[in-house]
Amino acid sequence: LLVSGCSGNGGKVAAEIVERSQSTPSQSSSVAPESPPAVSAEESKPAESKPAPESKPAPESKPVPESKPVPESKPAGKPEFVLSTDSLMAGDCLTVTGKNIPAEVKLTAAATSGFEPKFYPDGDNISSFVPIARAVKPGSYDLTVSYDGFTQTLPYTVLDPKFPGESFEMPESTVSSTVGSSKANKEFGDAIHPLYPVGDDEFYGASGFIMPIKQPTFRISSEYGFQRIVNGKVADQHTGVDFPAPAGTPVVATGKGRVLYAGLLQVTGNTVLLEHGHGLKSWYQHMSSLDCKTGDLLQAGDPVGKVGTTGYSTGNHLHFGFSVNGTFTNPWQFVEHP
Would the pTM of this model clear 0.85, i.e. be above it? Predict the structure, then answer.
């Protein structure tokens, strides 16, 4: 609403003329009129009327400052949540978006596939990644979101990606000093687990993601989700993708992100963890050296480190992964497969 200012110009007031009226007494027929007292010559002069003081012009009124226009209130639409897809493979990630959701409401959300979404600002909406862990069984699941008496349940189907298996040998000394060591696992947990729930409100990855290493011919020695058998024993499913490369090959940031951790861990070797916003993280492991430090804000293509074989590793390679909070998800959803 615009308010225009009104300004008044004060003009000069005309001089006031004072008239002195002389009253004439009425005469009675029965009483002789009193003789007026003698008046001296000076007193008989008519009194000069002094001109009234000139009135000062009224100060110019300042214009009323324009009030800022009040933003038009958008009509409140029906609150709703929508999924980016209603069917996906185990190990993939969907997005849930809330539209027309009042600000500052306390949301509760849970997926029966085992993840509790955390919502972040997304333009006029709010949204959250919902990763489906690689070990989730095929079947029907749903996501329920509630606030202030509002509840909506969104169904989705998880499909079987049919992850293949792989078998390899690892020196027992390496196993016992890394994944087989309670001390090494505690070190990893103390350093990394508190970082899982961290999520920046700003999503840095809007411009996309690139491959973390550049070489003439890409090789992939192990894919995401592979069921591993190490030294004849069933081990965990692979959490990322392994790129074999010569020692010292430069490793770069896949996208803009904040370095949550950069350091040496017994299990994963020289490790870097980037937060890309909204809880989406990228991982770089087993490097020979680091080219960034905790707290750095990196752009896509900035140096992260160099390929090596530190930690739980059989040779020079980069382990590259993505997670939402602590749930690892297929990197090929974010980076184009070479």
Answer: no
- Cβ pair 239, 160 in contact under 8 A: no
Distance of CA 90 to the CA centre of its chain: 27
Summarised one tens digit per residue, pLDDT across range 189-229 is 999 999 999 999 999 998 999 999 987 777 999 999 999 99
| Residue 167 token pair | 């078998």
| Contact by Cβ (8 Å): 284, 212 | yes
Length of the chain: 338
Distance (Å, whole) CA 294 – CA 159: 38
DSSP reduced 3-state for 112: coil
Strand order in the sheet with 227-230: 165-168, 227-230, 233-237
The helix/strand/coil state of 321 is strand
138 touches 160 (CB < 8 A): yes
Range 183-186 contact pairs with CB under 8 angstroms and sequence separation of 24 or more: 183/266, 184/265, 184/266, 184/267, 185/267
d(CA 242, CA 287): 12
Question: Is pLDDT of 187 > 50?
Answer: yes
Q: How far apart are CA 75 and CA 59, in angstroms?
A: 46
> Rounded to an integer, what distance in angstroms lies between the CA atom of residue 296 and that of residue 99?
34
100-146 residue pLDDT tens = 999 889 999 999 999 999 999 999 999 999 999 999 999 999 999 99
